[in-house]
Amino acid sequence: MSTPLHDAGLRARDPALAGRLRDRLSVEVPIDVPDGYGGLTRSYQVSTKVWGMIVPYQIRTGRGPDQDGQVISHLVVMRWRGDIEIGMRLRKGTRLLRICELADADGRRMRMVCLCEEDHA
Asked: For residue range 29-38, what is the model confidence (pLDDT) as tens digits?
């Protein structure tokens, strides 16, 4: 069975994978504040920092009113954390990766794989 992790050439139970988690990432949680006009203003706040590995995964043409170009997807592999959720962001320097999907990479809650889209906000 093909999975994004296998497609990227990674094995979840590879003991050497831990040594490849070299990207220092800030985990950002969304903060919604009422804007006074019935809507919300979203900002992000850093909650913690993690070590991970960013792997380019897919480039596709965006379709729809908000997607007028290429959508760049990445897999981010990190040690399992129970506090990571869809909608959070990962930041490495000026790069922003919005978490779209999460998976338990090995079924034992040792490693987590996040499917992310590069955010140009």
From this structure: 999 999 999 9
The model's pTM is 0.78
Tell which residue, 27, 21, 22, has the closest CA to residue 111: 21
Cβ–Cβ < 8 Å for 101, 87: no
Please state the φ and ψ torsions of residue 38, each to the nearest 5 degrees: 95, -5
Contacts of 55 (CB under 8 A, 6+ apart): 8, 10, 74, 75, 76, 77
The correct answer on CATH 4.10.520.10 for the domain covering 4-119 is: no
Closest CA to 5 of 113, 120, 79: 113
Domain ranges of the chain: 4-119
Backbone angles phi, psi at 17, to 5 degrees: -60, -35
